[in-house]
């Protein structure tokens, strides 16, 4: 269960010890998290704007900077999701250069987790795991189940028992083995560490975590490339385990080192739900540690009370001159609606967090109105429809008979109900 | 409400009369449907393999063969969805060259309707409509609502009252005006014809239908390009109104005429639910007409009992030497599960229809096992989760305490319940 790559290997963040490539996430000596260290000089000639442009239209165009074993043949066209100029939302929140990175439509399972899972499973196969899995708040479960099915590998997935029904169904449908755990994500994650050891499972975010996490860099590569190989002024990113926001920065730094973009300061802003805000609390307090919390929020995909990369994310954010904010469940739902109404993008609760936090940061003046700001949307609204339940009275509105006169009467009712002027043309049916 | 294009205009299918470009779907003289006729010679130099490859990675790379007004600036990166080699599903159904065209991840609203709506709305704006809309079985409602929001146009959408909750919510969230009609799709559609006239609404599939329908051609262009500018032997396509399958053929014919692909016979196979199968019935009977049906199926996105393009679709299928089949609701659900388990693709009920019909056609020998066959998946499973309700006992399975011993006991239970041998490694916890 080990392989050699001359380009990258596991390295301890703290003591600097190196470990080759194997399923290992923490340093046996000092217990710090391991990360993938690259020999960027070896990559330099192989990772240029031209080589990237000549690649496929998915994350594998960045393969030279991903930890994938030699000879790996990418199978799925994951990623390269749209970066959209958000003029309407920008107008509403007072920003002229706002962009949405839209992983709500990521292939294959509609969240950014598809990126990390595809990199992790490439390594799981190389390491010879017969069963893969994860601890998950939902999106990861969907992605592991789907990609394992496609690869013909068994999957065993552990989740907190109270996840959204759509996320549970969207795991079971791929014939994954799903175990609901009576506890929150942090309980599930601790159990997974034991299970991975005991059963020799390849858990993408446990023993394969360093490989998995590198997949998140592709969000950063894509943003830079889609901005015309330029870095933005600000990134607003949701935070659960704290990994994604750090990896976007790592991606930017690699692009600077390799000369694909000009060096410039980028400020990183983290977004959390107030009901689970250990990292935003840490940033606001100026801590270099986090105080674990017991999650209580509708943003279940962000409900990690003791985030593995929390301290590192907090320090990173503070170091860039950024900030972190958290919003209430009510604001989350408003954020979902605001993004849908203005840009036609239906995101899950985590995206509502990002949208609401972005608005607040602009209002606070922490993000300048003309700065280039990218808000990262990581998942699809169809997975958390229960968060909007009761929000739309129309869902149970009365059915109208299929006649023009009934239709006209109903429109009048609607106009009356919303206290708006009739929106009909003057030549209308009244 | 009219514009001129030297390249395309409305033309009557029957009498051949031409109408320029205006919001009109039927010939005032002979009542036959209008379609867009192109002057392909004008396009010849502008639509080559090279010009397409140099275009953006979405449907606008085919703009030269789409009816979009001069000066139109595409805003949304719609389409260019994955074409996946389906080795696992192929193995299960006995086909070696099976592909899935996967519009379950189409941007922005996860169905092929995004293609048609973007083309229709380009024209709606040119024609000056202040309100757009549609009659819809769900996916179209989602797409019109989302794209209208992004464009800042008002939307008024009419649906059968009993649509799936996820599709209703996924329309309301964009702040569209939604009217639930007490009737089936055919009732809704007739009402929309009256409403479009009375209120001067631009209904994408009513008075804008000829423009709208052309958007479906992009499915065909993409399949040919993704196969390396080759045509497949067979297309299996779900049928509701009967438009998509015809437009894929139109796309192939245009590519042949313009020399982008070699001419070869392609057989077209239509897929319907038995509970609403007017077109497959027509094909099976060898009719050149259809007998309208009253829909009764869980595949609500295909529940059109009196399909506008039904007769034309039936004749076309028969002319290519193809066939049509229909499957029961039980088979539809099995089709959804089969595609998910083998390829990691979660499709809606219509995709279950396509998958189940594809399997049957291969079993019948109507599709040869080594022929290149593309099954067209048009929508996402998260929109029809209710179709799978009760299918997975795990959804309400008991929650397991977060301890290794409890986990081990639960796995044993699962193994017992499924009557399988334990899937654990020999070194496991027993």
Overview of the molecule:
Chains A, B: Keywords: Lyase, Pyridoxal phosphate. Chains A, B: Its cofactor is pyridoxal 5'-phosphate. Chains A, B: InterPro entries: Ser/Thr_Dehydratase, Thr_synthase-like, TrpB-like_PALP, TrpB-like_PALP_sf. Two copies of one chain form a homodimer. Chain A is α/β, with parallel strands linked by helices and 430 residues long. Helices cover 37% and strands 14% of the residues of chain A. In chain A, the strands form three sheets. Chain A has a six-stranded mixed sheet, with helices on both faces. In chain A, helix 6 (165-172) links the parallel strand 6 (154-160) and strand 7 (177-181). The longest helix of chain A is centred in the first third of the chain and has 15 residues, at 113-127. The termini of chain A are far apart. The relative contact order of chain A is 0.12. Chains A and B meet through helix 5, helix 6, strand 7, helix 7 and helix 13 of A and helix 5, helix 6, strand 7, helix 7 and helix 13 of B.
Q: What oligomeric state best describes the polypeptide chains here? A: homodimer
- For this structure, the CATH topology of the domain at 83-110 and 211-387 in chain A is Rossmann fold
Largest interface: A-B, 89 and 89 residues
CATH top level assignment of the domain at 83-110 and 211-387 in chain A: Alpha Beta
N-to-C SSE string of chain A, H for helix and E for strand: EEHHEHEHEHEHEHEHHEHEHHEHHEH
Largest sheet of chain A: 6 strands, mixed
Total number of strands of chain A: 12
Distance between the termini of chain A: 75 Å
What is the residue-averaged pLDDT of chain A? 94
**Poorly predicted sequence stretches spanning 5 or more consecutive residues of chain A:** 420-430
